[in-house]
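The data are set out underneath:

___
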Amino acid sequence: MFALLDTQIRNPLVTDILISSNAGMWVDQGSGLIPVPRWEATEKEVRALAVELIDRGGRHLDIAHPCVDVRLEGGIRVHAVLAPVAAHGTAISIRIPRHHDLTWEKLQEQGYLSPQQHEYLHAAVVSQQTILVTGAAGAGKTSLLALLLSDADPHQRILVLEDVAELQIRHPHVITLEARQANNEGAGGLTLEQLVPQALRMRADRLVLGECRGSELGAVLSALNTGHTGGGMTLHANTLSDVPARLRALGFLSGLSEALLTTLVHGAVDLVVHVERGEHGRRIAQMGTFAQNSRSLEIHPLRFGSS
């Protein structure tokens, strides 16, 4: 079982591997999911595989913790859900980073962005703008944010907060704080929200939240309003126009009124970059800014002549 899995992990085209006892193994090589022939495993075998992979990442998967994320060597991210939470059998999702050799030149050759967009993004990073990268799952949000932050001044200190560390930033001074799972007694856990004040005591020039998906948004937005400019975040959203609604939903989880959320976002986020993935690959679909004179969150798309 591990031999076939290792073969897929070593395949440079594979970015995602999905495993379950009822559906088998599926992989994504950049153009959508395809089934892997000759893969067969029982529920007992898939469950054992899930437990071992999570254990390799230093966390535990059991009845008390049936849904767990871990990071393995090389930045590989594993998410596992045990049955019966996964109703049709234990499910394993593996994300493999393939952006170690990503460059702006290659992205332009692939049609990912135009020279004008690259020039605009580079200037935004150099001028310490805080960038929110949005897109659907698998669109390449994390890869783009990492590449953007690699352009930051090498004398600056980048402080990253992540639930599971994924951002691989080519920069000489990056510190990552990773959330921690509670033990079997329910003690010792650390959430992203709890890590924010720790990050603020660590002399960060740029504060980065790997992914906005919970109540930590309020704490991070507040921190970004206190002089920590030039960082970034990612957010799941289907289109650029969906971003305000997604932020409002997360703001509700943080206990923020719409008025307060609007004020915090206006003070924290300078640029929104939306990426998408289609049949022709990944690309920057739109870029925009929040309307500063509005009492609610509104995005004004930016126009580029050859985008």
User: Anything to note?
Assistant: The mean pLDDT is 89. The longest strand covers residues 281-290. The two ends are 45 Å apart (CA to CA). The chain is about 30% helix and 25% strand.
